[in-house]
């Protein structure tokens, strides 16, 4: 099979995969339909303050698995839904920011800076439309880069990286994640270390489980989903409950202009195009780095846009922050461009860089038959490599999602303004109930509930002391790969304890890891922000 | 609803076709409830795939409800320990490998893994364990491997379990070939390691079949006492100096003291499905493991006892 045959097989796998139902003599394939549902849900949760894409992905994953089962055919429908949520949430976040000046996420705060003033001027529709067009173009660019780069990077990694270099690469990724997220590098490292420690319980290569204190209940280790959902979702719910306990429920959102006037004006597209394009390139580049989320992309996109605008703005144009369409475009294109590019490290290296990617890995791990990483991109012939077909299926779903973004996105986005009025004190108990139920459905074991609550408390404590939770989760997921790679490199080198310094490439990677941790300045980190510590709103 | 309809259809078919079905019907036994099938290895691998196909065939053929459940880890030990705690009425069984109750049980030093704590039911297939290398490379025959070792070239050899590592270490001692033995996750992991160039050689039990048939890979040695189906010319371990083999089977077991009728029915059902090339499970076993091999009853008990004593001897040989 050639490259073209694999691409075709991937497309066919999406459209000829398992049928969801049959109607009027036609079979409805599950994957595209699930993508559509996911997209709809994604915009809805993006538009709901206090909810975000990763939260919806977390809750829906166990439910999806119980619907589709753990068969290889389940992969594409489940990925379809998750990709839909990821894409939908990215554009949905602009809705409350523009209409009500509610920024559930830091990136949306940047959108609100210009979106809300524009809406107050009676141009809410125009502001939304600009956000939509910029967001969709950022998404398109980033998808294209993903399709081209992921296979290329994977092949490169397989060809040039030996076992010690692979170990060093994982160490570098963890160092990067620890250094870039949260208040301080030290806290990031604590988060990573605790994530590794939790993952080392009952794993390893021996026939007896380690670090279990002889407890039978721990002999299988902590279930991956329970840990991830506990720290990310339940911890966030606990923190929200505490916030509401002290501050009382938030008042309903004040509805700003919802007039039907407006829409794109002549010349708008030409006006915002350079800003959207520059931000899209920026967002894509940032998205490809593990651990750096859409927030930094939005912040930098806005800052660069602002600089350019200062030099080129016409005399009568509004200032940035005063309702400049360019401000909305610069922010939205940047944060949307992150989502596609974020999958580059997952698909090519098996390293999840943000919360959305964590759930893609989690889905692959729970279902089986697809192990994100360099081994996916092997163009075997005549034997078909089923993982590669799935990878091209994912690309097809991404492209379809992008198409939805351009077409249905606008209408769904406009309709979802209503979600902004749902209050947190109503939402959080529902999310908690659904999360606990979903975990019980997947694990069929009450012990899993204790584990998720335990890790929820840990996530809450992390938030209280300002430790970022995502480094914990990413370290938990990568711990197995790290230990395996290190053990393998050690054995393959004939038990050389200095295997990490055995080749120039691995020395460079290790030096880079040390440099990232030591040199990353505190100021730079503050711009990424401490809100990573308090939320999973990394869209 | 659909499942119920299928079950009714199976029932109707069973009644209407009388004697034909009775021959395949395992002793008219009906499980007292849904059967829990504990799978001792991760989702997506060879053990998982055959277990789920066999479970599906049990539902289709006999109308039983089979609920597969993953309890992976520690070379099948977790699954074995889990099934030992279940009721012995035929509603719980586990699929593991014979190595789990042999070598792995001894190394784990866990008395709960003693053979008498289990009821062996039936095997499904024998490992077609081969030492695999890329065709046309530096290591695609035992002669080349020995020559490379003599020339002082480090040889990376991938293994999926500690027992295989010990047999390989023993082989190195006996044949004078120095191996850097590297542990990978499952046979598929070893194959990936060879494909990625991280490994020179690796022990693989079946996954290599399609690559060997397409000429991409070769079996350098046979790890079992008999020649491999795909590569009858590859010398066996015994011929190159080893006193031990990497023999083994995928095996279904239940808790100790299983009800006799249940044991016979389940063993019969597993064997019938595995040996029938018309079933998906049978086809998969033929494709990936060179055909099904169903040992039951006393023969299986004797095999497991022999396997355990061989494991003891192996551990003594490598700890000298």
Write a concise keyword list for the protein shown above.
heterodimer; A: 539 residues; mainly alpha; two-stranded antiparallel sheet; 2 strands; globular; disordered C terminus; B: 320 residues; alpha/beta; D-Maltodextrin-Binding Protein, domain 2; 5-stranded mixed β-sheet; disordered N terminus
Structural commentary:
The complex is a heterodimer of chains A (539) and B (320). Chain A is mostly helical. Chain A has one domain. Helices cover 71% and strands 2% of the residues of chain A. In chain A, strands 1-2 form a two-stranded antiparallel ribbon. In chain A, strand 1 and strand 2 form a beta hairpin. In chain A, helix 8 packs across helix 19 and helix 9 packs antiparallel against helix 17. Chain B is α/β, with parallel strands linked by helices. In chain B, 45% of the residues lie in helices and 18% in strands. Chain B has 12 helices and 10 strands. A 5-stranded mixed beta sheet of chain B has the order 2-1-3-10-4, sandwiched between helices. At the A-B interface, helix 19 of A face helix 4, helix 5, strand 7 and helix 8 of B.
In short:
The complex is a heterodimer of chains A (539) and B (320). With 539 residues, chain A is an all-alpha fold.
Topology overview:
The complex is a heterodimer of chains A (539) and B (320).
Chain A: H1 3-15, E1 19-23, E2 26-29, H2 30-47, H3 53-68, H4 75-92, H5 94-100, H6 106-160, H7 163-180, H8 185-200, H9 224-247, H10 268-287, H11 294-312, H12 325-341, H13 343-349, H14 355-367, H15 386-406, H16 408-415, H17 424-443, H18 446-465, H19 470-492, H20 504-519, H21 522-528, H22 531-534
Antiparallel strand pairs in A: 1-2
Helix pairs in contact in A: 1-15, 2-4, 2-15, 3-4, 3-9, 3-14, 3-17, 4-12, 4-14, 4-15, 5-6, 6-10, 6-11, 6-12, 6-13, 6-15, 6-16, 7-8, 7-19, 7-20, 8-19, 9-17, 9-18, 9-19, 10-11, 10-12, 11-12, 14-19, 17-18
Chain B: H1 2-17, H2 19-24, E1 35-39, H3 46-62, E2 66-70, H4 77-84, E3 92-97, H5 98-108, E4 118-126, E5 129-134, H6 142-150, E6 155-159, H7 162-175, E7 179-183, H8 186-195, E8 201-205, H9 209-213, E9 217-222, E10 249-255, H10 260-275, H11 280-289, H12 297-318
Parallel strand pairs in B: 1-2, 1-3, 6-7, 6-8
Antiparallel strand pairs in B: 3-10, 4-10, 5-8, 5-9
Helix pairs in contact in B: 1-3, 3-10, 3-11, 5-12, 7-12
